[in-house]
Amino acid sequence: MMRHHVARAAVLVSLAFMPVAFWLLLVAALLTQQPSTVTLRAQAPGTPAASYLDFEFFKTKVQPILLATRERHTRCVTCHSHGTPMRLQELSPGASTWNEEQSRRNFQVVAPRVVPLSPLQSKLLIHPLETEAGGDFYHGGGKHWSSFLDPEWQTIANWICGRKATEQIVELTGACGE
Questions:
Q1: For residue 50, what is the enclosing H or E element?
Q2: Which residues of the chain have pLDDT under 70?
Q3: Three-state secondary structure call for residue 73
Q4: Could you give the C-alpha distances from 105 to 14, 113, 116, in angstroms and in order?
Q5: DSSP letter, residue 129
């Protein structure tokens, strides 16, 4: 009988320390995530990214990428028009693209996911990029680009690098001006 009480007390003591161990592990995990936190702050709503980025380039060259059909993947707009933090405008019934007002709203939604002049720090480019090519570990819609040399990736990178709709797209090797 005494052994039973001792064993039960030992279990209760170990259970009392489990929440402490959990919180210590959680704090340690959060402290090791500092670089990601810096990127998040840089891409927070209200950043000046929208004032730097060219709306016409976005409307005529970036938005078509968000509507593009891809082999083995769904279109970006399918998921990103509902249920995600980067929520694009739903297409009007029967429309194949967004109207001017919807495009401006999309621009305001997408701009905070961009760090001007830093394609490799912009979530818009690193989430759908294969991890082996420099992308991050997570994008619920899959990895659309296997390389930063993909034409769609290059188009969006040119926009992030400040290219205007009237300018020719140049090949970038990961950073602006390269």
A1: helix 49-52
A2: 1-50, 73, 79, 138-144, 178
A3: strand
A4: 53, 14, 19
A5: B
Pair 74, 123 in one domain: yes
CA-based nearest residue to 157, from 117, 108, 112: 117
pLDDT tens, residue by residue, 121-140: 888 888 887 788 777 776 66
Phi, psi for 122 (deg, rounded to 5) = -95, 120
User: Do 100 and 156 sit in the same domain of this protein?
Assistant: yes
Do 39 and 121 meet the contact criterion of CB atoms below 8 Å apart? yes
Residue 163 CA, chain-centre distance (Å), reads 21
pLDDT in tens, 154-172: 999 999 999 999 999 999 9
pTM of the model: 0.69
